Amino acid sequence: MSERVEREYELKRTGAAEAMAGVKSGDRIFYGEFTLFPRLCDAALAAQKDGVTGVNVDSVCFTQMPKVAEVDPDGNHFILNDWHFGGVSRKLHKQGRCNYIPLTYHQGPRIMRKYQDYDIVVLTTGPMDERGYFNYGISNSMASAAVDKARRVVVEVNPNVPNCLGGNQESIHITRVDAVVEGRTDTLVQVPAANASDIDRSIAAHIMEVIEDGSCLQLGIGALPNVIGSMLADSDLKDLGVHTEMLVDSCVDLYECGKITGARKVIDKYKMAYTFAMGTQKLYDFLHNNPTCASYPVHYINDPKIVALNPKVVAVNNAVAIDLYSQVCSESAGTRQVSGTGGQLDFIFGAFGSKGGKGIIGISSTYTDSKGEVHSRINPTLAPGSIVTLPRSLVQYVATEYGMVQLKGKSTVERAQALISIAHPDFRDELANQAAAMGIG
């Protein structure tokens, strides 16, 4: 390590309280993304509660309850905003204490650079390397864009953050950092995949029928992507590739058993390209200094034009509901925000542009509410207030446990008929009658 880099590091090393000092009412602060939550600086900001009002605290998916929320139950001092909703944000939103910032994920960095200004950006990183760089670890995403729009940049160092190789824009140099906070020793938040149900396995079996040798995969987290990964591991398929928004544990399993080689990719050949990772310690250990994996900002990974460059892209995304016009809602239950747009539109659009590509919405045909009543997820129209995440013009494949249908090129009548054919049998007659009444039956 050069003497200049060491000297600059020592000059900028400080405590969390000092790093967050000087926050004023009305300031806007960015807390980083996903599991890389800045615990020390969050606690330091919370301690300043009584001296400020109207401080906006933004993140891309809070994965733990911020101290600034715990100390301010009435929301008089801090306003929380999330670019992608998870469980923490849903809870706070229900209490009127967290707002959603809508975006199509690949546009996030551009939106940030054009329209946001941050007084402080706090990023959790790995330790500085001998060249003076702090690695963004498992959350590249929008980090560089936030830094570009920051008046002050603070890095909170955690030695347990894996060093994730680029790609590009995967790190920040000490010369662009204003304060370095040490003292973290905690392990990263782990997000194991949910257990798969028989319904998940049935949906996955239908999706498996269109995955072929050389397919380039985008799989998210959850039971359905996890069971698809298990089925791929047990299959005869070979030379699979990965170009995905989120890297998950199932990708590690597929690589270890030889299914993923990336040999047939056109861009980032032989690499698993991603913008953030979320899973268990197995995934984080796999990523550390692994040249098989390439971390990129989301404006590259999720750009539909980039996605489309690899052949045979298979993008699998889930949904909350779909109507007979084939409009897909993936982020709200009526007016209640439950998730974010994320990269669903990006990858469904990009997969269709890929030679041999397939964009798939996987959805269970029904759900059971808190009263034990069963409802269809395929309905004549979406519930009032539901957000259309994917317009009907972009929908390609829809899969339930009862089959998979391809909707491109089909009329509104044909789409309705196709969707009814994969609805739960108990609801098909009613859906057919309602489709007829709507003029699409």
TrEMBL record:
It is found in: Cytoplasm. Transmembrane segments: none annotated. Keywords: Cytoplasm, Fatty acid metabolism, Hydrolase, Lipid metabolism, Transferase. InterPro entries: AcetylCoA_hyd_C, AcetylCoA_hyd_C_sf, ActCoA_hydro, ActCoA_hydro_N, Butryl-CoA_acetate_CoA_Tfrase, NagB/RpiA_transferase-like. Pathway: Lipid metabolism; butanoate metabolism. One of its GO terms (biological process) is acetate metabolic process. It catalyses: butanoate + acetyl-CoA = butanoyl-CoA + acetate. Residues 279-435 form the Acetyl-CoA hydrolase/transferase C-terminal domain. The keyword Lyase does not apply. GO terms for cellular component: cytoplasm. One of its GO terms (molecular function) is acetate CoA-transferase activity. The active site is at residue 245. CoA binds at residues 220-224, 320, 343. Residues 6-182 form the Acetyl-CoA hydrolase/transferase N-terminal domain. It comes from the Bacteria. Belongs to the acetyl-CoA hydrolase/transferase family. This is Probable butyrate:acetyl-CoA coenzyme A-transferase.
